[in-house]
Amino acid sequence: MTGAKITAIGTYVPAKRLTNADLEQMVDTNNEWIVGRTGIRERRISRQDEYTSDLCVAAVQDLMKRYGKSVEDVDMVLVATSTPDFSFPSVASLIQDRLNIQQTAGAMDLSAACAGFVYALHTAHSYVASGMHRKVLVIGADTISKITDYTDRSTCILFGDGAGAVLVESDKQSTGFLGYQLTSDGSGAHHVYRTGLAHKVNNIELIDTQMLVQNGREVFRWAVRTVPLGVQQLLEKAELGLEQVDWFIPHSANMRMIEPICERMNYPMEQVLHSLVNFGNTSAATIPLALDLGIREGKVKNGQKILMYGFGAGLTQAGQLVELNLDERVGEPTLL
Ligand code: ACO
User: Fold this and answer.
1) 147 and 188 together in one domain
2) Among this protein's residues, is 281 annotated catalytic?
3) DSSP code of 122?
4) Which residue range forms the structural domain that includes residue 228?
5) Which residues pair with 272 in a beta bridge?
6) Locate the Beta-ketoacyl-[acyl-carrier-protein] synthase III C-terminal domain: which residues (predicted)?
7) For residue range 186-237, what is the model confidence (pLDDT) as tens digits?
8) Are residues 159 and 181 in the same domain?
9) CA of 216 to the centre of ligand 1 (A)
């Protein structure tokens, strides 16, 4: 097995803010309810003519500027998203040309909803560890606002748009990838969905709106019950204890989900990183955004162990424990 490490990170969020006060003008809600039930204060919303591919390109440009990296020699592009510009071609193919990535690099999208970034990270690690690839660009990006029903007050308060990119490169000396966990429970597929060609799943008729539909309560219960078990299994496989994890980055779905998850795990909230307050639930982008906020704030440092854990529609879960070993930064991050 070849070693692998995350060498660089970059992020992007659209400029337009959607605050709780704005939402008060749109649906029957109020700031106190939203903050109390979710922890979210505002989200970023893409322009009408701004798509997931645009967010990806901007996140990679931030990465290149900060770490002095080129992506011309990337040999695989993986984009985790539930909101691609088109069903096909893939977002990965769209950005290959815009970023001057060699035509011989593989490029594909990966669909695992809010667990997508961690699924893609695991895939990148597998490719690099096998020795078949050397430099993989991994992006988690979504424009969920484009499929959000802004008349559904229990859903529209949650979501925002964003993108986060990392480079996974081979490392002959050691590996930064310490353990993983992947699960999927299709029996809960009808709890979060957007209809496509089919309108029925698990023998249940779906609401055909082209918008995101969720049973928030069911997703809430499922995540609080199962995420602590998934984390435990990951750590057992990695032969590490929770006390060795410096930072826990659960998917930023809702503060009121993260708190009971950490309580059940007996993990201190002070060591949790999230991107909820200013960006809301950005689906595949929440975890790289949270990691980057921790880096930008000077909390996260090389040598620390970071446990990323995504969960969402599918119902999917993906965890990845890494020891961070970023290259030295040479430029300032783009303001978020
Ligand atoms: N403002 C004011 N009141 C509201 C709002 C709102 N925005 N939304 C719901 N309410 C009301 C409800 O109508 C209900 O009123 P009632 O008791 O008179 O019927 C009351 O608040 C409680 O409703 P619940 O649905 O029980 O509220 P809950 O505390 O569960 O919060 C929420 C709802 C925020 C959606 C929560 O369940 C949640 O975050 N669930 C997880 C959602 C999630 O993570 N989805 C993942 C999708 S990710 C992916 O893979 C794409």
Assistant:
1) no
2) yes
3) H
4) 177-323
5) 248
6) 235-323
7) 999 999 999 999 999 999 999 989 999 999 999 999 999 999 999 999 999 9
8) no
9) 6
